[in-house]
Design brief:
Blueprint: H1 3-35, H2 37-76, H3 83-96, H4 100-120, H5 127-147, H6 152-168, H7 172-185, H8 190-207, E1 243-244, E2 250-251
Antiparallel strand pairs: 1-2
Helix pairs in contact: 2-3, 3-4, 4-5, 4-6, 5-6, 6-7, 6-8, 7-8
Length: 268
């Protein structure tokens, strides 16, 4: 047997060995499938059911999100609810939803509405009502900055309204800090809105600076008397008219003409 025949024979043997191994693997596979026939048949069906359940859950979540956004739009749009009830529903929505962006918007809107009502109705509210609206607005806006600080637009607007509330209380230092935080978080948004408030705050600071009066010195001399514009009235002039005599009759002035001479003196 030459070298060529020997090479061919080796190739045939290797091919036979591979066929035998493949046949053994197929036999094992048939045996395993026979033993697990139920699982093999039901496996694809289980996968299909799982996929359908996932799709159903995702659809329900999307429906819930759509319903929550629709509820937010209704509360922030035209509604017949009282303003206090609207704010309560917005806070409830923020607590119920799993969407952080929507929760931040709902809290921001609730705080802003309370602050706006306080500013608009400030003169017509008593001290208790003012304090209640101020606390309600501050609590909602502070929740935005504490829980959703990474949401720059919402947090910056919350700081802006917190500054306005502090300004209404006369706390100018706190208001200035809040305005600056709003400008730092969102310069192109709430930062621009804070510019008029910051300018007004500077004017208010100047208007409320303490007025320092000069120290008291020696008393000033009285001002020099000025000439009167009109002359002072003099003594009363004598009366030239008839006066009353002893008997109550009228006595006129003494006669100075010829008729008043005595009869003993001849005329001429």
């Amino acid at each position: 047997m030459n070298e060529t025949e020997r090479t061919v024979l080796k190739a045939k043997r290797r091919h036979e060995l591979k066929e035998n191994l493949l046949a053994k693997d197929l036999a094992k596979a048939r045996t395993w499938m026979s033993a697990h026939r139920g699982w093999v048949i039901g496996g694809p069906a289980v996968v299909v059911v799982i996929v359908l359940l996932i799709l159903y859950v995702l659809d329900q979540r999307q429906s819930t999100r759509d319903a929550e956004y629709a509820r937010y739009q209704t509360l922030t749009g035209f509604t017949t609810l009282a303003p206090a009830d609207v704010r309560k529903d917005l806070i409830a929505l923020a607590e119920e939803t799993s969407q952080e962006a929507l929760a931040a918007l709902a809290l921001l809107q609730a705080g802003r509405q309370a602050a706006q009502e306080l500013v608009i109705r400030y003169t017509s509210l008593d001290a208790g009502a003012r304090r209640g609206l101020d606390e309600e607005a501050t609590e909602a806006l502070q929740a935005v900055t504490d829980k959703f600080g990474e949401n720059r637009p919402a947090a910056s607007q919350a700081h802006l309204w917190l500054g306005r509330l502090a300004e209404s209380r006369g706390e100018f230092d706190e208001a200035e800090q809040a305005y600056q935080r709003a400008a730092d978080l969102w310069p192109e948004g709430a930062g621009l809105a804070a510019l008029p408030s910051q300018a007004k705050l500077r004017l208010l600071r100047k208007a409320t600076w303490p007025i320092v009066l000069p120290e008291e010195g020696p008393p000033r001399p009285p001002p020099a008397s000025r000439p009167a514009l009109w002359p002072t009235p003099g003594p009363a002039l004598p009366t030239t008219g008839p006066t009353t005599g002893p008997a109550g009759g009228l006595v006129g002035p003494p006669a100075t003409g010829p008729a008043s001479r005595p009869a003993s003196q001849p005329s001429g």
